[in-house]
Structures are given as C-alpha cells and as structure tokens.
Design brief:
Among the domains are: 101 residues, Conserved hypothetical protein from pyrococcus furiosus pfu- 392566-001, ParB domain (Alpha-Beta Complex); 54 residues, no CATH class. The chain is built from 13 helices and seven strands. Strand 3 and strand 4 form a beta hairpin.
Amino acid sequence: MSSLSQLYKQKDKNGTETTVKKTFLVPLSEIYVEPGFNVREIDEQHVEEFRDAFIAGEFVPPLAVQVTEQGVKIIDGHHRYYGAMAATAAGTEVSRIECKDFIGSEADRIAFMITSSQGKALSPLERAAAYQRLVNQGRTPTEIAKMVKRSVGDVDHHLQLLSCGDELIDMVKAGDVSATTAVALSREHGAQAATVATRQLDKAKAAGKNKLTRSAAIPQLSPARARRLAELLADAEIENNRLTVPATALEEVMAIIGEQKALLRDSGWEEA
C-alpha cells in the first residue's frame, strides 16, 4: 500500500509543486469517493457550508485519505470534498485541497469515520450501520466500544436498532420516533412494534404532537404511584406461593393495578 508521502516524492521530480509537510496539497482531480464507503449520508446544507468556506478563503480541515491504485481515496472529509467541488462550480476554483495520510486497517478506517471530530455528527441509524460494518469485520461489541470510545451498551443499543424492522426504521428516519423509543418498542413488541408505534403516533398527532415520545409509546405508572404500590405490598404475606394483601390495603392495590391495565389497553399493549 502506498501513501501520500511516497506518491508525491516521485511527483516532486515532475514539477507538481506539491507541499510536503504534515499535510499535502493534492489536486482535486486526483481525489475520488468510493461509493458506499462513507458512513454519513451527504447533507447538502453541510456541503454548502464548506462551499462558502472555500469561497471566503476560510480554513478548512484537511481530508484524511488513503492512496490506492485508483487515486487518492477519501477516508474522512466527504462533505469538504463536495464543498470544494461546489465552490469550483460556483466560480471559485479550488484546484488543490489539503490532505493527510490515514494509515490503518479497514476496521480502523471505519472507526476513524465514526469518531472524527471534523465530520458531521452521525445520526443514530448512521452510527448503527457503522457499528454493523465493524461487526462484519469480525469485531465484537466490546472491541467496537473500545475502538469508538463508547460503552458496550451503546454499541448493543445501536445494533439492535437495525433489527427493528423497515417500517419502524423508516419512522426513525422521518423523525416520527426516536431511536431509543424504537428500540424499546422492538424489545417489548417484536414484530408488532411498528403496528403499536403507528397507532400511538396517530394518537399523538391527534393530540397536537409531531412525534411519538417514549412516555406515550411505553406507558408507565408515575413514580409516586409505583412507590405507593411497593409500600402497600411491603406488608403482604407470602405463603405457598400466594401473596396475601392486608384487607386495609386491598382496595388501593387493586386501584393502582387497574390504572396500569388501563394504560396498557389505551396504548395497545394489551387487548381490551
């Protein structure tokens, strides 16, 4: 595998005037994008921000690249590259762009794209897809967590997001349901999660809300009512696997249980 340093040591002899320091001014024509490699979807607004930065002559962080047989492949900096192209199309020629070598394995390159502070923040689905690519490289959730400096729980949570089903994932993409709510619904409802989410979203929109919140999707007793139920059951007796509630507390216990059943029915978690 070659590198920018090796590539331009040879090109210096041909009068390319390549700057050789910590970074390299690489002709835009020699840089290419590998389809499907970037973990981020291209955001046109973000591209326009970099376009304006190039036009204004502002500092733009260097691209992280790898030299291949096809040319100089972008590892991190796709929006900056498209911003340079857009600036050129708008009349401000960007003939060269600052780049730096990235050295590492395929898994290292994916992890770098995830953790790069220069890139646009990953959406939950983009992060999930990137984690899955690392799984496909043979990495375990524990190894991935270490690579991207996140918890194992974060990795597991995002990987489960990919198993929520196309309909629920589309709702996450549309902003109707958050990623955390989608995962919670999937854990509880499995294949029926999307049906429940759609029903609850319709109710939320009818109430004037624009998305399904976790509290609306996953009904729960208030902390105060749950705590009161625990207090009442603390005096119950257990004998032969039977729970006997004191007569003085029975009515209130049944009332709280009834509240929970009503929440479940109203939310579609239990047949009426």
